Amino acid sequence: MRTERRFFRTGAVAAISLAAILVAGCAKTKPQTPAGYLQIDINTSPANLDPRVATDAISARIGELAYQSLVRVGRDGAFVGELAEKIERPAPDAIVFHLRHGVRFSDGRPLDARDVLYTYASLLDPENHSVKRAGLAEMASLEAIDNYTLRMTTRRPYAAALEMALLGIVPRGTPLAARDAIAAPPGSGPFKVVAFERDEALTLTRNPYYPAPSGALGGIVMKVAPDATVRALELTEGICQFAENDAIQPELIAYLSRQPKLRLIRSNGTTYQYLIFNFRDARLRDPRVRRAIAYGIDRQAIVTALLRGNARLATGMLAPENWAYNGGVLNYAYDPARARALLEAAGYSRTRPLRLTYKTTTEGRRLAEAIQAMLRRVGVAITIRTSEFATFYSDLRAGNFDLAASQWVGVSDPHQYSLIFDSRMTPQGGGNNRGDYANPEMDRLLRAGDAELDPAARRAIYARVQQIAAADLPYVSLWWIDNVAAYDRRLDGFEPFPNGSLLSLAAARWFPSAAAAGAARP
Amino acid sequence: MIRYFVRRLTALIPVALGVVTLTFALIHLVPGDPVVAMLGDYAAPADVQEMRHALGLDRPLWRQYVAFLYGLTHGDLGESISQREPVSRLIRERYPATVELAVAGLAAAILIAFPLGLVAGADPGGPGDVGAMGFAILGISVPHLYLGPLLMIVFSLDLGWLPLTGRGGFSHLILPALTLGAALAAILARMLRQSLVEVSDADYMRTARAKGLSRPRALISHGLRNALTPVVTLLGLEAGALLTGSIVTEIIFSWPGLGRLMIAAINNRDYPLVQGCVLVFALSYVAVNLATDLLYSAIDPRVRLSR
Known about the structure:
- The complex is a heterodimer of chains A (522) and B (307).
- With 522 residues, chain A is of the alpha+beta class.
- Among the domains of chain A are: 68-165, Dipeptide-binding Protein, domain 1 (Alpha-Beta Complex); 269-481, Dipeptide-binding Protein, domain 3 (Roll).
- Chain A contains 15 helices and 19 strands.
- In chain A, the strands form five sheets. In chain A, strands 11, 12, 13, 14, 15, 16 and 17 form a seven-stranded mixed beta sheet that branches.
- The longest helix of chain A has 24 residues, at 2-25.
- Chain A is globular and about 75 Å long.
- The N and C termini of chain A lie far apart (54 Å).
- Chain B contains 13 helices and no strands.
- Helix content of chain B is 77%, strand content 0%.
- Chain B has helices at residues 2-29, 34-39, 45-54, 61-73, 87-122, 127-141, 144-158, 170-199, 203-210, 215-244, 247-252, 258-267, 271-299.
- Chain B is globular and about 85 Å long.
């Protein structure tokens, strides 16, 4: 009996200590979204908030809310002044920016040309190893004429030079990559980052020095919720009041649109998805084979069935919203008979199908299977290889594929065409021509387009570029993915933006009754 | 006892070395480059080269390995490539959350398994047995991915009793613990039932009944303890799995644990961070198994540790 008692005593001690551990672990309480704030659910945590080093999509989205740059991307993909109220081009290789007066950082310091110079210098400092340095390769110099005027020169006449003015400005003296500081440096945008716990939540409050309309949101809490179903449940219950694009799974759109408390809006997006051909493969160098594949894919069926209608069939990389868009190009409507005829002419027949390896990411698996089934019908046998992103990306850059599915996000200036279709711009050459596509006329046009400063002449050049791209088919253009946002009906003033920017939330507000209730949560 | 303990701790060194070496070899074998993953589409080749140099990734693999081991002997796990912070700090931030979840999952499993196992084992073939074991099968069969959202809908959204996601007070722990512990609870309950059925035929049980103890009383006082050894063995093995297997639960409940950190590190090919996470997981696993062995002797004095 003695041992029995000891046994149970041991059990009791174990149970108590277990409970103690649990209670100790639970001392921390969960931060609540403050009243009048908007909670946005995001699927991944931002990696780094300093605009000088941040490259991931969600960090960039947050950066637009907290930082201002000399220019930003407008609705049509052209650049509009942000910190710069006036932009002049006194010479083909020079740009002069006149800064707005009275702009202040969230810590109260006024923003002037010295802060801009400092931000660029710290990014360019080799010691800092900024990943964004390559983006400034065409910049020859940046100098301050006075405290509110800057002059940037480029190494050659360079049409896309304003891309280099998209860098978020931080106060002078802000060290880069302060290894112990997780919070972001001050910025001059409408919001400031006040708290950030990686993989949990990020809190933005109003920048007190940025004019806010009356009744505007007091702040934004971005909560990391990695599971798509959970994000949808939180939206439905009003725990979270906003989610968009990557944070909304296409399968859940129908469910969300049935929720009476939510508004679901779709708008035209600019994310371009495509299939890339590898020209190193002799079979794919034959244009008839590439065209056959383009004709053999029923894109509309895939958009309807798999993407639930949330995309527009694409004619090329630039979406119709872009100022340089040209829709008058060869279009490949689904035509299996024509695809078979083209393959036959190229020396392939049903008895000798074309065999290709198709690479995609694990997320693209279902899409790949649909394309595989469609192409099998026209006589192209496809083996699908799916891998997680790092492996896929490495294969893509190494040219280790026949056919691959990928996308371009955030395309604005048509200069992007130079990086993907110029024959010199292979991954080894610092570009993204991953399929080894080469056409001398394309090269000539792209180089002319980069050097042409007159917008009308430039538009004409890229109109031709888009025609050649559609005829040569280095890519099969699939579709432009729609922007989808789901949010609480009481939120007023959100305006979707083609590239998915959340900047309109700076002027958004809760409808008065909702604000009084403090964005009432259950 | 102390000698046993020291010997077991010494055995940790080759285990750690093996894990570190294996992880190092595997993560470097997989295609993908941390610098390219970080710099993205627009990096100039010169910048990639320079970054690789700055991070020491251009050195021969064996030198990177030696450097890593050298750091390890000084308690330095290196610096995360993607987050530019010391690996040890990133792990320290997350480890408590993972342990908290694993301990809670274990507690939930035990709290569910013991009553079920006892009810089932006390009357094999009876209605209690059928009910409890049916419940156990359900627990094993329902995947985390489904059970988690189901519990959320019922207890959080419909009833409003518990918070939906996130880490916070005790109430935040209940649903993830149930989700994580359900499968283990089912396995434990079945094991306990089986074990109880076996011991109920033992001589000492007959003696206990002959002394006049009721069947349930004999089962709890004499049978349970003897039936526990296989259950504890299983518990030890599975507790380690709870620690490492909580990744899905962490994702569903937005739980800021080590599992999510490691998945992100693998995707970014963040070599030092992956190595650090795997090492911590492996050492935790070994520690749990050591604790299990110690528990044996507490339960059953016939087990001698030195042997």
